[in-house]
Amino acid sequence: MNEELRIGAMAIKQGIMTPRQVNICLEIQAKLRAYGVDMPLGEVAVRRGFIRQEQLEALLRAQTAPPDSEQHPLEEQPQPFERRPRLSALPRGVVNAFTALSVLLCLGIWGVFLYRAASPVKKIVVKTKFRNSSRTEPASVSKPPSVHPPTTQQDQDFNRLKKLFETCKEPKTVLTACENFRKKYPKSKYIKEIQEMEKVCRERLQEIRQEHIDKASKAFVDLVSRVLKLRSEERLQEAVETLMKYPREFRDTEYWDKIQRQIRSLREQIGRRYADDLEELKACLARGDLEGAEKLVEKVSRYAGEAVGKQLRKRIEAVRKRRRRKLTPEEAVAQVKTLFETHHYAEALKVAQRYLASPETAKRHKIDVLLARLKAIERLYRLVALHYQMNVGKKMELTLWPGGRVRMRLEDVRDFTLFGRDEAGLVVRVGIGEIAGDVIEAIVAKETSPSAEIELALAQMWLDREDDRKAREHLERARKLGASPQLLAALNEKLPQKQSRPERTSFTLTKARELIKGRRFGQALDMLREFMRRASDDLKKSAETLIKICRKNLRVAENPFSVELLRRSDLGRGFCEVTYDFSSTEQLNDWKEYNWFSVFDLHDSQWRLEGGVLRGSGCRGFLWKGYVQGDVIVEFDAVALSRTQPNIQVTICDDGKGENYLFGAGLVELGPAQDVIRFNQRYGMPRTIAKRPSPIVAFRKYHIRVEKRGSRLLFFIDGKKVLEARATALKGGHI
Asked: Which terminus of the chain faces fewer neighbouring Cβ atoms within 10 Å, N or C?
């Protein structure tokens, strides 16, 4: 880091870069390090265009140059030495004498050499030596010095291999040839040469591999910088196209997998946003808001691409050219029924008021009772809206259904919806149908006197919220206030009917006993569970005895999804216990990674097994492929490895549409760590329905247990219940 700062300081001192440019380069360098790429500061500055490559090289030379004290050391004083007299300093006569003696000596040596060469004694000596040698050594043993052994097939193969080594540019080819030579000649005399060739080829292979990885890393960094810029500008489709340009020659590197994962992540994000915006576009076209539709298409074109925007503009043009056709009474009736069944009462009222205003039309299509129920709900909603209209501009806290609270400053009330802003300045929108039923009942008691129509509307509200007891109470009040028998009958049909025939009850128990006798314990348990909801107390005892028999005799199922190592004890249809010890990677087949809705992260995190422990980090969740219906208990041991954010989180009943219950231990957001139970919804603000200060610390193991039993949510840490809440929004989902 000091070297990076030194480079920046030198660049500022020489006037090559400004302090702002150095800070920008340091920020980019920090982001790249977060993605696992370490790029020097100077190279970042060159890529951003702040300096040229020549200027960077000059800075590096200046950085590595020794200090001035080393460049100009003190000159050492030369040591005095004895000067020898040169030859030219001798007297001229002495030189001539030396020259003459040298010439005479050379002539004498040459004379002796010529005399010895021509002397007959030399010949005799030579002959004598030859004869002596012939006596001691046989002639057949002598070897001519210039004779070489004949060339063999091994020599020829080695020569070809050597030539291949010298000319071939593919080390793999040479290594294959060396391996074949070893197999053919296992005891060859060229083994050492072969080993040297293999060593050189392996070194060259490592160099080529490293060069390949460096190129892949450089290309990855370039793409990441461009994708980050496109992502910040909400141009997601262009980011996908940019990632797809990553060269296929790098498919054998880790960067290819990272690129492909980010492409999938971006496409999923585009798909989710497009699905939401498409529904909103349909709503705009349905109400004739073409201007709003065009603005929405512009936003879609930005993140999904111009091709998608072009198709959506064609749809808008078709709507603009097409004359608005009125619905027929039959179509209006079908639309009103659908909207009413899905609890979209405001939209159902608009369609009914426009197309079914005539009482004769309503009676003819047998929808008069439904319209009367709609009018009762409209009166109730208008009463609540009028109450809140008087509080515009004030701060208030709303209790919501099925749980949670929201604080806001109320700004407007329209279309049976409250609009305001929370403490952070974010827009908050709450429909009257989302307000808690107790709050609505209190408003009704304060604003008006009891009436049959209001009581019917309250009964409908509690029916929608699956509170049969309160619905019956309001129906009884409506009956006493003189409500229409037809409306009472229509609402009574929606209430579950109590079992009143003893012969039916005895038949159920008899049928369950027959199933148990036939060892069909799962079906018998299902039947008895349904029977327990409406049976009397004395009959429940008999049913409980049969339930114990069923659970005791249920078999153990094998292979719940794809893994045979799991232990799954069946407790009947809809009841099971699955245990994971994470002793094998095969157990991960029952789980899958996924990204949270609002997260885009180019630095991948991966869940993995290490010594029987499941490890995960970053923004990727771990989803169980099984689907839980009804009650659920989740138990596990967990350790938080972050000192600043020791979070341990588990969500249950995730329906795949962005709604779930989150249990968080040590959750750190804007303040101190907290343990929370929160209801998350994709189309609204999260609702914290229970919380407390958290004692969770990092690097300590905690035993977490969360339960959903009916409408009760229980949160246990180390066997102690820390939080409890009530919520009934979701019946089932994933973990």
From this structure: N
Does 245 reside within a domain? yes
Average pLDDT, the chain: 75
Q: For 199-251, how does the pLDDT look when each residue is reduced to its tens digit (9 = 90+)? A: 888 888 888 888 888 888 888 888 888 888 888 888 888 899 899 889 988 88
Q: Choose the weakest-confidence range: 36-45, 139-148, 584-593, 721-730.
A: 139-148
3-state secondary structure of 534: coil
Rank 63-77, 92-106, 433-447 by mean pLDDT and report only the highest: 433-447
Minimum mean pLDDT range among 195-204, 538-547, 617-626, 711-720: 617-626
Distances (CA, A) of 478 to 381, 483, 492, 557, 607: 18, 5, 12, 52, 58
CA-CA distance, 448 to 430, in Å (whole number)? 23
Q: Distance (Å, rounded) from C-alpha 266 to C-alpha 534?
A: 50
How far is Cα 407 from Cα 688, in angstroms, rounded to an integer?
12
| 490/509 same-domain check | no
Residue from 594, 592, 593, 558 nearest 578 by CA: 558
DSSP string, 216-261: HHHHHHHHHHHHHHHHHTT-HHHHHHHHHTS-GGGTTSHHHHHHHH
Q: Which two tokens stand for residue 39?
A: 């790029």
Q: Which helix (H) or strand (E) holds 547?
A: helix 537-553
Residue span of the structural domain in which 239 resides = 233-321
In a domain, 117, yes or no: no
Q: Residue 716's pLDDT is what? A: 93
Main-chain dihedrals φ then ψ at residue 274, nearest 5 degrees: -65, -40
Q: Are residues 580 and 659 in the same domain?
A: yes
- Do 607 and 549 belong to one domain? no
Q: Is residue 170 part of a domain?
A: yes
Instruction: Indicate the pTM of the whole model.
Output: 0.34
